Amino acid sequence: MADKGERMDRVTLFMFPYAGASASVYEKWKPLFHESIDIVPVEIPGRGKRFPEPPLRRIGPIVEDAYTRIEGQLSERPYALFGHSLGSVVAFELARKAKRLGKKPPVRLFVSGRAAPQVKELDEPVYLLPDERFKQKIRSLGGTPPEFFQNEQLLSLFLPILKADYEASDTYRDEADASDKLSCGMTVLHGTEDEPCDPSEWSVHSTGTSDFHEFEGGHFFINEHAKPVAELINRLLCTKEERTL
Q1: 80 to each of 180, 224, 225, how far by Cα in Å?
Q2: Is residue 213 annotated as a catalytic residue, yes or no?
Q3: Region 64-75: what's the mean pLDDT?
Q4: Fewer Cβ atoms within 10 A, N terminus or C terminus of the chain?
Q5: Helix, strand, coil percent content, the chain, rounded in steps of 5
Q6: Which one from 22, 36, 85, 210 is the annotated catalytic residue?
Q7: Which domains, ranges and CATH numbers included, belong to the chain?
Q8: Among positive and negative, which fits the CA dihedral 84, 85, 90, 95?
């Protein structure tokens, strides 16, 4: 449990899931956060309570959908954004959208398990791979229980969602100009065994300070290290000086 010390101004932390995941992956994190942090996992179409809705195949519509769901909360109190992998892009573009619309900026943006937007990650789009090669790629990243790949019923339900998410990720292009630069602090999180990540490539997107933190593990290090990740977030969001950097 996080330290319940000095009372802080409350902050809302919007959390965006990785490809194929529901927002419920963050529910187990709630006890790890300081009492001044209210976490709001943001569900996108095609999973969880929104499973009946068709998944979205481009980042733009995903960001638009997420923005409409949280817009009313952006002016209530300070807020921060956290995303892992695909969720990092959604969180990042949502911060940009808030800026373009003249909304209050986040106090901090947390991007995890993702190279900066201007970096081309893959030569071959994953979503275009034949099903067997696509499944091999997903297996290689870890984070998906082996029994998932042995259950044809589950595969028939969730493979289209995964492919839609990878299509959104693979087709994303950074088309911003200098006016889109953020002003908030930015924290970059990375797994030591994941694809290399240069934090300086993220830092160019904000005039605020940036910091970089590595955790043991591969692409899904956040599942193994939820507690230290939450402790880092607590430290950065529960210290007023850190919030404003």
Answers
A1: 18, 22, 20
A2: no
A3: 95
A4: N
A5: 45, 15, 40
A6: 85
A7: 11-119+176-243 (3.40.50.1820)
A8: positive
